[in-house]
Amino acid sequence: MHGHGCANGAGTIVNAIAIWKGAAFCIDLKTTADVNLDECSDAGAGGAGMITGRIENADTADTALITRCVSLVLDRFGYRCDGVVTTRSEIPIARGLKSSSAAANATVLATLDAIGETLQTMEVVSMGVRAALDVGVTITGAFDDACASALGGIVITDNRNMELVERLVYESDVLIYLPEEKAFTADTDVTRSKAIAPLVEVAYRLALDHDFENAMTLNGLLYCAALGFDTEIAMSALDLGVSGVGLSGTGSAYTALVGRDQIKELTGCWGDMGGSVIQTRIVNKL
């Protein structure tokens, strides 16, 4: 039995690590998953089933998240199967662009496709969040990121209560600056992040007021200071008149919400700072 799934990456408006509340936007970079299952038996027949994982072009990458996603879906419907899950992605890993959330969502969808079952979108999201918590690739569960990946547009969430506060359609081009270094969420200094919590609350309130650019910029500068990332990347964009720019997730990427007339100048500016630049957009309809 074969199934296929696809999910998008996302960028940060408010990082939820400090206050367990966040906001994020869906971007036009995708992860796909293919799940191949041997003949399945009823869970009551015994036997755990063996799921193996592979991440294309990253043979040494940890596959615990995607194999856990497959297992959770099979458990949900009472199946025991052997199988293989393979993901491939346009989203750079360990850069704060929600590659884990996209991989989880895509894998859950692919497994459902393989067994001929369906779930409501928010249950798909919840299953991926549970898998991420189970294997330790997230601190808060990244419910905000998972919602943005699955629903499109901009989402505002309460991660502690797994509540989608609001989803909005928002049109914007997006530029992403990718430094050479990676930054894994699980390695984040949570204590340093908690120290900025009162100011992150201010950023979250700005997001609730739909002042997304200022929320994103304040959040980004705060987390750069807390986690030791260079603020010059964001400042260079602000100097060019960009109003929404900041660190995405826990880094190492930076994202900027830009107008068409700003793309060329900021691309050139960031291109001169080393690393690489990706042009994409907010995706509202999936």
Q: Do you know the CATH topology of the largest domain? A: Ribosomal Protein S5, domain 2
CATH class of the largest domain: Alpha Beta
Helix- and strand-based class?
Answer: alpha+beta
Note the gap between the termini.
25 Å
Please provide the count of β strands.
12
Low-confidence residue ranges? none
Largest sheet: 6 strands, mixed
Query: What is the CATH architecture annotation of the largest domain?
Result: 2-Layer Sandwich
For the record, the count of structural domains works out to 2
How would you summarize what this structure contains?
The protein is α+β, with helices and mostly antiparallel strands and 286 residues long.
Could you characterize what this model shows?
It is built from 9 helices and 12 strands. The chain has 286 residues and is an alpha+beta fold. The chain has 2 domains: 166 residues, Ribosomal Protein S5, domain 2, CATH 3.30.230; 110 residues, Alpha-Beta Plaits (2-Layer Sandwich). The strands form 3 sheets. Strands 1, 2, 4, 6, 7 and 8 form a 6-stranded mixed sheet that branches. Strands 10-11-9-12 form a 4-stranded antiparallel sheet. A two-stranded antiparallel ribbon has the order 3-5. α1 runs parallel beside α2 and α6 runs antiparallel to α7. The longest helix is centred in the middle third of the chain and has 17 residues. The radius of gyration is 19 Å and the shape is globular. It starts with a strand and ends in a 5-residue tail after the last strand. The model has no long low-confidence stretch (mean pLDDT 93).
